[in-house]
Design goal:
Elements: H1 2-18, E1 23-27, E2 32-39, H2 41-44, H3 50-59, H4 64-73, E3 77-83, H5 88-104, E4 111-115, E5 137-142, E6 145-151, H6 158-168
Parallel strand pairs: 3-4
Antiparallel strand pairs: 1-2, 2-4, 3-5, 5-6
């Protein structure tokens, strides 16, 4: 019995840890290379996507006073980002988002980045419970409870909208 349980755990852990991250596919609808499924910032920095990522990151200057306030509110916050590497709004907002995270000292391990195709499918990653209508969607959690989201574009600025969500989620 113990052997069966141990073998089952071994195979399950191999499946979980062998899922491909930053997977590139050719999207038939857009006719371009896209990221699909579980990703991280490194996928955005890869050769295919670094043009929009690097310029969006470098060219954005977050508001320093807002960053300072965000830094004080970041503890316990986890973020899921659902984006399309093919999507203009994602190409603008996601590099800015990572710049904000870097400036506020936010742990990237608390960010779950999921890329979707033009049909809002994430390959092997299940996003059915996230109610994704448009991308990018930034979903903020505290104590495993959603405290807010930014969909497609911020109302004010990304960092100002994040601060509003962080302070409301206390």
């Amino acid at each position: 019995m113990k052997t069966t349980i141990l073998l089952s755990l071994f195979f399950l852990s191999n499946y979980v840890f062998s899922q491909e991250i930053n997977k590139n596919i050719n999207d038939e609808k857009s006719g371009t290379q896209i990221l699909i499924g579980d990703c991280d910032e490194n996928g955005l920095k890869s050769d295919v996507f670094k043009g929009f990522y690097e310029s969006g990151y470098v060219d954005y200057t977050p508001l320093a006073d807002v960053i300072k306030k965000l830094s004080k509110q970041k503890n316990g916050v986890e973020i899921t980002v659902v984006m399309g590497s093919w999507c203009d709004d994602s190409q603008v907002q996601v590099p800015r988002f990572y710049k904000i995270l870097d400036e506020m000292g936010f742990k990237k391990s608390n960010v779950n980045l999921i890329c979707v195709d033009t049909n809002k499918n994430a390959g092997d990653t299940d996003i059915s419970g996230l109610d994704i209508q448009r991308v990018p969607t930034f979903i903020f959690y505290k104590k495993e409870r959603e405290i807010g989201r930014i969909v497609e574009s911020p109302n004010s600025s990304l960092e100002k909208d994040m601060l509003l969500i962080f302070t409301m989620g206390l």
